[in-house]
Amino acid sequence: MTTTMHGPRRRALLAAGAGLVATAPAVRAQGFPERPITLLVPFATGGYNDRLARAMAPFLQKHIGQPVTVMNRPGGATVLGNTFFLQQPDDGYMMMVHSAAPFIPVSIITRNARYRVEDFFMINLPSRDATVLACAADKPIRTVEEVVASLRRDPRSLSVGIQPASADLVNFALFCQAHGIERSRVRVVTYDGGGPARNAIAGGVVDVGLVGAEGFLPIKERIRPLLIFSDEKSTDYPDAPILTEHARVAGFAPQFVEGSQRGFVVASRFVQAQPERYRILLQAVERATKDPDCIATLGGQQLATTWYGPEASNRAYRATSALMERYAELLRGN
Amino acid sequence: MIDTAAFAGAVAMLAGSLDAWVWVVPGLLIGLVFGALPGISVSMAMALVLPATLYMEFLPAIIFLTSVYTGAGFGGSIPAVLINIPGTSSAVATTFDGYPMARQGRHNEALGAALFASCIGVLISYLVLLLLVQPMAEVVLRIGPYEMAAIGIWGMVLLGSIGGASVAKGLFAAGLGILFGTVGMNTAGYMRGDMGIPWLLDGIPTIPAMVGLLAASQLFALVNAKFIVEAESERRISLRRILAGGAMVLRSPLTLLRGSAIGVFVGAVPGIGSSIANLLSYGEAKRSAADPSAFGKGDVRGVIAAESANSSSEGGSMATMLALGIPGGGATAILLAAFAMHNVIGGPRFMEQSRDVVYAIILSNFAQAAILVVVGTIFVYGASTIVRLPLRYLIPSVLVVSTMGAFAIEGSIAGPITLFVFAVLGWLLSRYGFPVAAVVVGLLLGRLIETEMLRAWQLAGGDPWYVLNYPWAVAIVALMLVSLALSVRRDIRRRRAVRDAASPG
Amino acid sequence: MERAQAPRQPAWAELAVVTALAAGVLAYLIEARGVSLDPQNLLLLQPTAWLVLGLWVVIAAGCLMRRADPAAPRESAGEVLRVLTMVAAFGLFIAGLERVGYDVAICVFMLAGLLIGGERHPAALLLFPPIFTLAVVHGFRLLIPYPFPTGLL
To answer: Is the peptide bond before A102 cis (omega within 30 degrees of 0)?
Structure first.
């Protein structure tokens, strides 16, 4: 749509935009934005990011004074979407809603993507997911200690469902290392997506498995969460033990990486080149995120609206990226 | 098994709400149009109307989306029959006999049969959904890699050498297809054959490749012909003959029921879906027929088998979605997203608490199947005019529309390039007597088989005897071997009989 | 029952096609083995590739041993040339999509397609391509969420 925009139409929109001067004076003074904003989702329709983008769109629209549309560009574990996004002009008319960490660093490590971690700048990553170790509710396994004992006795005794090249895999590797489990001998079954891995765990196809906690929510009753890779109790699974506790009891230093961190992303190049426009986008996202209507609506859809802001979000993104880089060999499957 | 109070509630809900009905016909029409456009799949059609449903009430929104689903399920068969283009990946097997029928001037019957088989398939699948939703969902969730690999291999064996004159060429084509299916990153994370092209990491784009192989190659071969249907007198479009095609469906109840059963079950398994169901059903119909050699040459049973299976997989995948909250494929993923946008979380709790809404959705789909008979007949009547267009207009037009459809899948030039490469390949292969359909089957099943065999291997930790822990998979493979042995024996006998007849003395 | 022996006439074109495909398969196999020799990489790929290469021997031998079949319908050189022109036009169309824009490419290809198909009526040649292009470009703009580059429209 951006590529087919020509002079007359642009002027018409400008004129139409002039009518909105009263609603957002700071924005209009600069003339940005003068046409619709696109939210690019590098995943297929129906996933968390897509739902987040679509749910946020009306509130962003309200605070930015221009229509906001959602565009999906899935493929290649976000490589296609990321590459497409960086090819767009630095005019601020496109933002991404993305599981930026760990998808961007992992795509660089495992898919030889040509962009760098620093090419992306986080505005806010409200959704933070954690890896959960779980089994089907009808399996005889009751606690994480049983899993550890079984795998230490014989690494081949349990099959483990997991996504290759994911935060979950890194967490599993750290877990094995801490407990002295010989990971290369464990029967690891790979699934190319959180959905299929979750189904295999819930159906008891694999004995245990590691998937992001969000994915389990619709079928909570069918699984037994054994361990959450986090340092704070989960509100969704209040009874599940967390890694820091587990590590304290077992006597090792807790080490884990966060699961998917999702939210609004722009290009670093754009932030440098257009600080004013960046500020306008930032303000709009912040206002929309804090809008009580937005909080209520998104809450009803089990979508996160926490405001961490760019500083904390970028810190989290960089930290996850650095950790992923440290486990690059592992992620590449060597 | 049916909660009568909730059932009555559902009837009241549908009877009292005009909103729930006004969207059915537009939904079916949108589905038909999108399904009939090559490249635009069921899930894309639903994704495109999803934003519109945001502003509707919950029930009308879901009914609108399922109408699109139902319409698109049949829409794909129209270009499959008329120009050998499977409008969606679930109409591949429809081309095998539907297109030969069209070339013989029996396009009316083929489309009529496809339409009735689709409608009855939808009806049967929702009936199964109404009665067996919970037990089916339980079974489906437990299906693991062994069973899935067995299903994939079964399909490959049934269809591997489809339509080939020589066994060697058939197997060569099927092997080629499987290899195409393995390009890109596999489930264990190994990347091969991507030639440094980023979009090949996800594998060869299936739909453009398929359209290229089946349709574009066929269009090149038709450059020297005048019309799809050679005989002018056969180019008529006749309501009577469309209905006669529908009647053929009723005369093959076994094919229809078997196709629907395969469709419901395979459709319910997450990650397999209608494109595999229609291949399996076609393969089974061919294998169990008294005269398998009639298939591929314009046998209406082939069309019935394929269409009953692909449309009944809708009910199957709805079962998994409603009972478990798990999307079996793209279409149900979008339905779940629509649920979420209305603050409804699909899954077991929704089934428990809103049984009346679930029944209302099911009942509405019964109505949709019935309405589709009428809307579909009108649509088919219009679409059939394609056979009256001279090929000099039709060929470039269809190539352009296919190219745009291939672009629409990912919004990049990757689709059109794939379309072209596979069109040339398909043309060359069919020119030298290789069965192009076998390449398509290999492409569709190859990735499934690799993924599931790999997981089976991982689950076994490399131990080949581990498979004995999976009696169902062993049973499927054993059944397959027995049926294969029987059909080989039959083939040998028949060949011997033919030879004896040909050379007296 | 044997027919009178027809003279041998190897099917060179078919041999070339099947050999090119087999070469592609071999290259793919070598590339995949270069990625990793782990069974998790080669489980299905390697046996299938060997099967295809084995079948190549059978088919290639068949091509060389082929005997002329006088009953087979022969297409004229003109007909083959026409198909090849169509293939080439389609290839140029795909290559031109992003370069000259979808609208221009479609319009030119439609004109070429009509000419190749044998349409000579000037009114049809002048009117059909632009009208069809207009319909396709506007129709797909409505249908698909992605922008596509256009030259004029």
So the answer is: yes
Closest residue of chain A to C102, computed from CA coordinates = A4
Confirm if B185 and B202 have CB atoms less than 8 A apart. yes
Whether the complex's predicted ipTM surpasses the cut of 0.90? yes
Same domain, A138 and A217: yes
Q: In this complex, do B432 and C52 lie within 8 Å of one another by their Cβ atoms?
A: no
Q: Tell whether A8 is covered by a domain.
A: no
Q: Which residue, of A229, A250, A271, is where some domain finishes?
A: A250
Q: A35 and A86 share a domain?
A: yes
Give the confidence band of C142 by pLDDT, cuts at 50, 70, 90.
confident
- Are residues B205 and B353 located together in one domain of the fold? yes
Domain that holds residue A30: 20-128+260-332
Query: What is the pLDDT at residue A20?
Result: 39
Residues A120 and A180 in one domain: no
- How many Å apart are CA B270 and CA B255, to the nearest integer? 24
Tell whether C91 lies on the interface with A, counting CB pairs under 8 A: no
Q: Check A71 against C149: CB less than 8 A apart.
A: no
Task: Give the pLDDT band of residue B165 (cuts 50, 70, 90).
Answer: low
- Does one domain contain both A241 and A271? no
Partner B contacted by C77 (CB < 8 A)? no
Looking up tokens 């361990």, which residue turns up?
Answer: A227
Sign of the CA dihedral running B266, B267, B270, B271: positive
How many cross-chain Cβ pairs, A to C, lie less than 8 Å apart? 11
Q: Is residue A333 predicted with pLDDT exceeding 90?
A: no
All residues of chain A having their beta carbon less than 8 Å from the beta carbon of residue C149 are: 3-4
Q: B428-440: per-residue pLDDT in tens?
A: 998 898 989 889 9
Note whether A146 and A239 are same-domain residues: yes
Q: What are B468's strand-pairing partners?
A: none
From B278, B305, B261, select the one nearest B128 (Cα to Cα): B261
Predicted TM-score of the model (pTM): 0.85
Domain harbouring A136, CATH code: 3.40.190.10
Distance from the B463 Cα atom to the nearest Cα atom in chain A, whole angstroms: 11
Question: Chain B residue closest to C23 (CA)?
Answer: B176
Average pLDDT of the residues in B306-311? 94
**Inter-chain contact C147–A1, Cβ cutoff 8 Å?**
yes
Tell me: do B73 and B175 sit in the same domain.
yes
Q: State the pLDDT confidence band at B1, using cuts at 50, 70 and 90.
A: low
Going across the sheet that includes A37-41, the strands are A68-72, A37-41, A94-99, A261-267, A120-128
Q: Would you say the C-alpha torsion B78, B84, B87, B88 has a positive or negative sign?
A: positive
For B43, which residue in chain A has the nearest alpha carbon? A45
Domain shared by B454 and B338, yes or no: yes
Q: Which of A2, A4, A5, A189 to mutate to test the interface with C (most CBs of C within 10 A)?
A: A4
Contact criterion met (CB below 8 Å) for B450 and B181? yes
Residue B459 shares a structural domain with residue B475: no
For A127-185, write each residue's pLDDT tens digit: 988 999 999 999 999 999 999 999 999 999 999 999 887 889 989 999 999 999 998 89
The token pair that represents B229 in the structure block: 């249907």
Q: Where are the alpha helices (DSSP H) in A79-228?
A: 79-87, 100-111, 144-153, 167-179, 194-202, 213-216
Question: Which chain C residues contact residue B182 at CB under 8 A?
Answer: 44-45, 48
**Location of structure tokens 């290999």:** B442
Overall number of domains in chain A: 2
The C-alpha torsion from B90 through B92 and B96 to B98, rounded to 10°, is 60
> 3-state DSSP call for residue B16?
coil
Provide DSSP, C25-76. HHHHHHHHHHH---HHHHTTHHHHHHHHHHHHHHHHHHHHH-B--TTS----
A195 and B324: CB-CB below 8 Å?
Answer: no
- Strands A120-128, A131-136: pairing is unpaired
